[in-house]
UniProtKB/TrEMBL annotation:
It comes from Flavobacterium jumunjinense. The purine nucleoside phosphorylases catalyze the phosphorolytic breakdown of the N-glycosidic bond in the beta-(deoxy)ribonucleoside molecules, with the formation of the corresponding free purine bases and pentose-1-phosphate. Its EC number is 2.4.2.1. One of its GO terms (molecular function) is purine-nucleoside phosphorylase activity. Belongs to the PNP/MTAP phosphorylase family. Residues 23-269 form the Nucleoside phosphorylase domain. Pathway: Purine metabolism; purine nucleoside salvage. This is Purine nucleoside phosphorylase.
Length: 270
């Protein structure tokens, strides 16, 4: 990866009319409806953007949208990229570097995750307070990483404390249950075994998913304040484990989405 490649993509998007976005948003599985609240000025398919990966997951739409939301200039990634699609960690996080190049000053991330903490229920939301990277690599592990920032990026507070406090206050004001917890990122695409769920609980995970952590690491590398919220779509009880139902997971994410939209819109407004 080179700065020139990122600049090529940034300049292309600027020429398309994406200028001075303040906030970047990455939308995860079943969480595409926020775009209905965006006053869209520019809409571009990932496949039309130079150097951009293309989402291969059927429930990720693969569009970059720019416009106004709650009075702020916002750029939304509708659909993201995953290790399980065959992309490298550098490819997965390339869009975060592009968004920073376009000028965003904070990044909001959403995902769908399984609840390891059995006090958390299907359809609840969880604010990420910390994470465990079980994806077997780092998006910063490439030769010229110091061209982009400090190689040994500090991760003592990967999620912005100020943004997290604001989000918790917004949830309380709107009577939305918002747990705070630790997210474990695995490769996928297979779901976890009973033994793996037990292991995740032992090491301190409250939820498990297949995304988000690479983007958060790169945001920290770029000194970009980042916040992330999981919709908990299933309860991962190893003593009562049922076969996974992907349509049901998508449906639960869809049902929880209005709560996520309130949180994101109010945070953007503030």
């Amino acid at each position: 990866m080179t700065i020139e490649i990122i600049n090529t993509t940034v300049n292309f998007l600027k020429e398309k009319g994406i200028t001075a976005p303040q906030i970047g948003i990455v939308l995860g599985t079943g969480l595409g409806q926020l775009v209905n609240h965006l006053d869209i000025e520019v809409e571009i398919n990932y496949s039309d953007i130079p150097n951009f990966p293309v989402s291969t997951v059927e429930f990720h739409s693969g569009k970059l949208l720019f416009g106004t939301l709650e009075g702020k200039k916002v750029i939304i990634m509708q659909g993201r990229f995953h290790l399980y699609e065959g992309y490298s960690l550098q490819e997965i996080t390339f869009p975060v570097r592009v968004l920073k190049g376009l000028g965003i000053t904070s990044l909001l991330v959403s995902n769908a995750a399984g609840a390891i903490n059995l006090n958390y229920k299907k359809g609840d939301l969880m604010l990420l307070d910390d994470h465990i990277n079980l994806q077997g690599g780092s998006p910063l592990a490439f030769k010229n990483v110091s061209d982009f920032g400090e190689r040994f990026t500090d991760m003592c507070t990967p999620y912005d404390v100020n943004l997290n406090e604001k989000m918790l206050a917004i949830a309380q004001k709107n009577q939305i249950t918002l747990h705070k917890g630790v997210y474990a990122a695995v490769v996928g695409p297979q779901l976890e075994t009973r033994a793996e769920y037990r292991y995740l609980k032992i090491i301190g995970a409250d939820a498990v998913g297949m995304s988000t952590v690479p983007e958060v690491i790169v945001a920290n590398h770029l000194n970009l304040p980042v916040i992330a919220v999981s919709v908990l779509t299933d309860e991962c009880n190893p003593d009562d484990l049922k076969p996974v139902n992907i349509p049901e997971i998508i449906a639960v994410a869809g049902e929880a989405e209005p709560k996520m939209i309130i949180l994101f819109k109010e945070l953007i407004k503030s």
